From TrEMBL:
It comes from the Bacteria. This is DUF3283 family protein. Gene3D superfamilies: DNA polymerase III-theta (1.20.58.250). It holds the Pfam family DUF3283.
Length: 68
């Protein structure tokens, strides 16, 4: 089943983007291309509390998955 992501509401698109960013940052940490401070730097850029919570949950999820 395919899904057109452009048809999603803006908040859902934003959640997907935050999840992608979290995945990429954890991957960079695992590959030693970035340090844990990159997570804090990304969190500082997020202005809304629910965005920060979503990002932190995704980071924890990918740390578990990637064994970081």
């Amino acid at each position: 089943m395919s899904m057109n992501l452009s048809l999603l509401p803006a908040d859902e698109k934003n959640r997907i983007e935050l999840d992608k960013q979290a995945s990429f940052i954890v991957w960079k940490i695992k590959q030693s291309k970035a340090g844990p401070d990159s997570i804090d730097a990304q969190l500082k850029q997020l202005s809304k509390t629910h965005e920060r919570e979503c990002f932190e949950q995704s980071v924890e999820k990918y740390k578990r998955i990637m064994g970081v």
